[in-house]
Design goal:
Layout (H helix, E strand, L loop, with lengths): L4 E7 L3 H19 L4 E4 L4 H7 L5 H9 L2 E6 L14 H11 L4 E7 L12 H4 L3 E7 L7 E9 L2 E7 L4 H17 L3 E6 L5 H14 L6 E6 H10 L6 E4 L1 H13 L8 E8 L5 E7 L16 H13 L4 H16 L2 E2 L10 E2 L2 H14 L2
Helix pairs in contact: 1-10, 1-12, 6-7, 8-9, 10-11, 11-12
Bound molecules: nicotinamide-adenine-dinucleotide (NAD).
């Protein structure tokens, strides 16, 4: 079997700092679990602009298309704020998402028991929470035509168009059903079929795709009711699939159920490649955090959990992904806290590298 390939793009700000900790984890899996990766590293965002005058070099783009998975840190920072829009660091990330055609965005909302007090909701509502939101990422109202601000009579009118083709709905639905099969076999689809034709089509197509997954319990909910249910009793959900706009809102809402930005991983998946693996980009939800960059304060867990998602969804290593997540859980339960996780109850303060080392030690203890 060929060694699976991984392209690491640390990016800017705290990106490179948290990625150093992920490299420790990758090395651990090679040394202790005989799980090896062919790892290459390249520049993205401001770092790529500084060297190449572009936020993503063509060679890096080509490499990203070939590898089994891409793992990205974060891009951006005040140094690049005045750059022309076409070369801003974020354009590097957007180009990756667009050219890899990553239509399925996976955002887990998982609440580690040790951090349940961090949520703005009551502890019993969030403790043990483990849900996944699948957001359609490449179509819908953010891309539909016509769009723009036009003159109409004696005033301006702003127009955006919600547009979905059957195939766009079907492919993200399929990806959500596949995911539900690997999890609790429950899928809730959210749209606004009561007021939007695109929502009616969404519901019909998701139902059709569901016929291929009789084991998955499919339900439908209007997205506004879904937002209420997510805050009322989020544990009723397993996997949620929704469109680009509703997914943008609902995944942020669900993410905040669990507390800190430094804890949130994500995956963006595309169509299967020749080897059957989906095109995939894994990245923490947070940005480059310029306010704490270079100070050893960044929480590396979001990036480490993004690698755990890569183990599960790109490399079929679900057991090892669970091992890594359990190691994170153990370290948190022992009271280790980077600055962002330091609540009123205190804890043992650790630096970025201290947290990475503790997770490696917890992995050691797991075998
Ligand atoms: P941010 O996520 O970088 O930071 C928001 C706040 O959360 C900051 O106070 C930061 O210190 C804190 N924070 C974020 N990640 C943390 C971590 N791992 N550990 C501890 N604390 C953490 O968002 P922002 O400040 O709005 O944006 C900063 C830069 O990042 C901007 O240039 C923005 O464009 C870029 N950005 C990039 C991405 C990405 O690469 N995907 C996403 C969002 C923002």
């Amino acid at each position: 079997m060929t060694t699976p390939s991984l392209l690491i793009l640390p990016g800017d700000g705290i990106g490179p700092e948290v990625m150093i900790e992920v490299r420790k984890i990758i090395d651990w899996f090679g040394a202790k679990r005989d799980l090896h990766f062919d790892v290459a590293e390249a520049l993205v965002g401001g770092a790529a602009y500084d060297k190449h005058g572009t936020p993503l070099h063509d060679d890096t783009m080509a490499r990203a298309q070939e590898v089994d998975a891409v793992l990205l840190g974060a891009v951006g920072g005040p140094k690049y704020d005045a750059l022309d829009f076409s070369v801003k660091p974020e354009r590097g990330l957007l180009r990756l998402r667009k050219e890899m055609d990553l239509f399925s965005n996976l955002r887990p909302a998982q609440c580690f028991d040790a951090l349940a007090d961090f949520s703005s909701l009551k502890k019993d509502v969030v403790a043990g929470l483990d849900i996944m939101i699948v957001r359609e990422l490449t179509s819908g109202v953010y891309f539909g035509e016509p769009r723009g601000i036009f003159e109409e009579g004696n005033e301006r009118v702003g127009i955006n168009t919600q547009r979905y083709t059957e195939s766009e709905i079907a492919r993200v639905a399929k990806s959500a059903f596949e995911l539900a099969m690997k999890r609790g076999k429950k899928l809730c689809s959210m749209e606004k079929a009561n007021v939007m034709e695109s929502g009616i089509l969404w519901r019909e197509v998701v139902t059709e795709v569901g016929r291929d997954y009789p084991e998955v319990e499919l339900s439908h909910m209007y997205a506004d009711a879904g937002a209420m249910q997510l805050t009322r009793w989020p544990k009723q959900f397993d996997v949620i699939v929704t469109d680009n706009l509703f997914g943008d809102l609902l995944s942020d809402l669900a993410a905040m159920l669990t507390g800190s930005l430094g804890m949130l991983p994500s995956a963006s998946l595309g169509a299967p490649m020749a080897n059957g693996r989906p095109k995939a980009l894994y990245e923490p939800v947070h940005g480059s955090a310029p306010d704490i960059a270079g100070q050893g304060k960044a929480n590396p867990i979001a990036c480490i959990l993004s690698f755990a998602m890569a183990l599960r969804y790109s490399f079929d290593q679900g057991t090892e992904a669970t091992r890594l997540e359990a190691a994170v859980e153990r370290v948190l339960a022992e009271g280790l806290r980077t600055a962002d996780l330091m609540g009123p109850e205190g804890g043992q303060p650790v630096s970025t590298s201290g947290m990475g080392d503790a997770i490696v030690a917890a992995l050691d203890a797991s075998i």
